[in-house]
Every structure is written in C-alpha cells, then in structure tokens.
Amino acid sequence: MEVEQRIAFLVEKLQLTPHPEGGFYSETYRSEISIETDPGNRNLTTAIYFLLTSDNVSKFHRIKSDELWFFHEGSNLTVHVLREHGHQKLSLGYPSPNNESAPQHLVKANTIFGSSVDEPNSYALVSCVVSPGFDFADFELFAVDDLIQQFPEAIEIISKLT
C-alpha cells in the first residue's frame, strides 16, 4: 500500500480529524474519574490517536499535564522540546543500533514542544496519553516571535514548527 493510501486508510479507519496544532487525531479514552487541579476539574486521564505526515507538523504548544507518547507505525518522529537548556530532541519510533529512538517518551507538564516526522513522504501514527486529562482550556499555541525571544539559538526549528 502506498503511503498516501495508508494515510487515507488510517484517517478513515481511526476516524481522525484535523487537530489545531497540526496533524490528525481522535480521542479514544476519557476517564470517568475526575480530579481537582489548579486550572480546574479535569478527567484523570485521556488518550488519543495522533497522526502526523512529513508535510504536516505538530506546532509548538504547551499543556498543563504530563503527556506520554507511544509509537505505533510509520516513520520515526522527533518530539522537539524547548526548555531552559534550549532545544532538545526526543526520538520516538523503532529502536535500532543506528538511532536513539525509543517506542515511548514522556513530555512533562508545562513544557513547550512540537513534533515532526523524520522521513520525507511518510507519516507517523502514535498514541498520546495525558494525565491529568487533556482539556483545550489548558492548551497554548505559540507564535514564532514569542519563542525566538526566549530561544534565539533554536530559530530554525521554531520557524519550522510555528
């Protein structure tokens, strides 16, 4: 199956819709249990399927919860993290002797991050589990000017993911 056909199949089969940060997603789980957090009452945990393509990145954003990423198929992807130590890369995908990839990564709460597929003409299908659960009220997208002021050394990746 060609890459474009596989992407179209996954979008239809998993009922994926466009996500505001980029890519496509479908919520697969929202805990019935809720907890009180600083921003308000949140479900204990949420989970989504998330699909990115080589031409469709996940823009730099921040949420107020921890987010676990789990790789399923396609090309490895890079989760780009902006922290006090600058730009860091988490490689998510098939581990091999030739890469530093892992099938799971954690992005801690209140971290600025985005992601991109490593290979051209490809895609990556992952799941993301957020705890406390995801709420769009806790979601913040960033403009290029905001990030360049804070992380001038990362101008290239900031320009790509904003």
TrEMBL record:
Pfam families: Cupin_5. Residues 10-142 form the DUF985 domain. CDD domains: cupin_YML079wp. InterPro entries: Cupin_DUF985, RmlC-like_jellyroll, RmlC_Cupin_sf, YML079W-like. It comes from the Bacteria. This is DUF985 domain-containing protein.
